[in-house]
Amino acid sequence: MKIFLDTSSLIKLYNKETDTYIVENIFIQNSITSIFLSEISKIEFISAIWKKVRTKEIAEEKAEIIIQLFEKSFGNYFFIKNDGVIFDHARTLLAKYGKQGLRALDSIQLSVAVSLVNEVDLFVTADKLLKAFFIQESLPT
User: Which of 37, 79, 99, 113 qualifies as a FRET site for 121, CA 20 to 30 Å off?
Assistant: First the structure.
C-alpha cells in the first residue's frame, strides 16, 4: 500500500500523542510499500517539534533526538517537490476552501495530496479540518 502522510500524522510516528495509535495501526494492518510526504513536511515537522518544547509538552533534549531521527529517515520517504504547479493549485484550493478554514501550509499539503491521487492508496492526516478537505477532494482517507 502507498500512503501520503501530512505533517500532523507524520509526527505521531516519532512522538507519542493522543491519537498515535491510529497512525501506528495503519502500519500494523497494512503492508506499506511507499510513504509520500510534501517537501514542506521537513520544515513543518521541525517547527511543530520546537512548538512542543515551547509549550512544555516535551523537553529540548527529546526534541533534538526526534529531529535527528526524522532527518536520518529521509531516505524512507518520497518527498514531493513543492513547485509552481503545486503552489498554483494550492492557490486554487484556497479560493475554493479558504472560507471553510483552509490555511496556507495545509493548502500546499492538500495540493500535493491531490497531485498523488493516482499513485497513493490512502491519505492520512490527524488534522480534522484537513481530513474534511481530503474527503471533499475524493481522496481515500
Answer: 99
